[in-house]
Amino acid sequence: MKHVPGSLHGDHAAEVRVPTRRALAKAQTRTKVIAAARRLFSESGYEGATIRDIAAEAGMSTGAVFANFTDKADLFREIMLTDMQNLADAMREAAVKGRTVDDAILRAFGAGYAFYKSQLPLARAAFSISWSPDQGGEIRSLPPVQALYDIISEQLALGVERGELSQEAEIKLRTQMLFDAYLANYPEAIFQGWGLEALQAKSRDQIRVILAGARRG
Amino acid sequence: MHTQGAHRASGGSVKLSVRKSQKEATRQRVLDAARDLFETQGYEETTVREIARKAEVSVGSVFTTFSSKGDILSQVMTDRLDALYAELDRVIPSLRGSTTDRLRSMFAIHFAFETRRTRLFLAHIAAAYDWRLAPGARPYGKTPRLRMIVRDCLTDGVARGDVDPATDLDVIIDALMAIYAWTYRLAAWEDADAAAMSAVFDRQVGLIAEGFRPRKAAAVAS
């Protein structure tokens, strides 16, 4: 079992908590299913990939897929959750390097666009689902999605602290507006093949306009 | 062949025009049926066969006019927009007040209009990201008329003196459009009605307007 480094630690580890063989097999199946699903969602979009296709791609039965995920939406949510978590990390890391509010938010957005640039079909599927009345609200309440909002509002709060923005900067509402503007540029990337530079140039203008009122105080 | 196929006229040009008007009638019936089905049972859940049955035409004749269900949806929305802009053309000349208030009124009319058939509109947005759509088929977000109206309003504002002439109008328009479009997620996620969406959007327009106020006026005000 070369994929289980834990088994090399011998008796000592065995006393602690070595996952059972069955738990390991299950985890391995999940990983395989998720990898296969990610490939297919990227190629054919959310609606285009069936559980059967995903099972075939992962080299297992549909039963084995359903043993791990309740349905396709569940599987997709799992992928989104992982991505959003990584996305939030990347955006936060970029934002803290910013010298001004504008710069920090622009860096965060740039990191976001760079993250999805290589997997736009997945972003497209995520957008489509986020507008569905059944699943959209649920996705919004996921912790990593909240983290994305927090990154922006933290930067705005820092801007107020540093005196770049007025005390009445309406942080909550402006955070929403900035995030809307960030998301609204994805169609350009998805449908018109905009590169990172063009997206960032547009973001820069949008950030400036949305923050302009708060700067005059 | 649809139900009116039996009415074959004999003379050449008459025959042509009859066929043309039959085709137009079929098209209209398909669009009406599709609009109602998309709204009542949802876009994903509606098949082209159901649309054909409700419109009382054959599936084949649906496909001689439309290339796909997405194409039908796109056409339904385009026709709806014609009605919306006819309404706006009537209302805009009578708008009064500041540029900010005029913008608010124009967008409020949009929110009120789209929430008459919220489910249809949300289907339209979701379908815009449908991977099956051909490149260039993206219906949502292509709102050149709205952009034009907003631009006219801002340009008038510059003339009236409540928009800073140094403002980059394109950037303001982009920001307004982005925020307007995403405000609909309140309808998708929270069942927000037109008034609730307008209330949020009005505050957002206000924040953007703070940025395009003429500098002198701002100095006088403070």
Total domains of chain B: 2
Shape of chain B: elongated
Discrete helix count of chain A: 12
Q: What would you report as the Rg of chain A, rounded to the nearest angstrom?
A: 21 Å
CATH fold-level label of the largest domain in chain B: Tetracycline Repressor, domain 2
Order of helices and strands of chain B: HHHHHHHHHHH
Task: Provide structural commentary.
By secondary structure, chain A is mainly alpha-helical. Chain A has two domains: 10-69, Homeodomain-like (Arc Repressor Mutant, subunit A); 71-217, Tetracycline Repressor, domain 2, CATH 1.10.357. Chain A has helices at 11-17, 21-48, 51-58, 62-66, 72-95, 101-117, 120-130, 136-140, 143-161, 171-184, 186-192, 196-216. The longest helix of chain A has 28 residues, at 21-48. Chain B has 222 residues and is mostly helical. Chain B contains eleven helices and no strands. Chain B has helices spanning 12-41, 48-55, 59-65, 69-91, 99-114, 118-127, 144-160, 169-183, 185-190, 194-212, 215-221. The A-B interface holds A 44-48, 121, 124-125, 127-133, 136-137, 140, 170, 173-174, 176-177, 180-181, 183-185, 187, 190-191, 202, 205-206, 208-216 and B 44, 119, 122, 125-132, 135-136, 138, 141, 168, 171-172, 174-175, 177-179, 181-183, 185, 188-190, 203-204, 207-213, 218.
Please render the helix and strand layout as text.
The complex is a heterodimer of chains A (217) and B (222).
Chain A: H1 11-17, H2 21-48, H3 51-58, H4 62-66, H5 72-95, H6 101-117, H7 120-130, H8 136-140, H9 143-161, H10 171-184, H11 186-192, H12 196-216
Helix pairs in contact in A: 2-3, 2-5, 2-7, 5-6, 5-9, 6-9, 6-12, 7-11, 9-10, 10-12
Chain B: H1 12-41, H2 48-55, H3 59-65, H4 69-91, H5 99-114, H6 118-127, H7 144-160, H8 169-183, H9 185-190, H10 194-212, H11 215-221
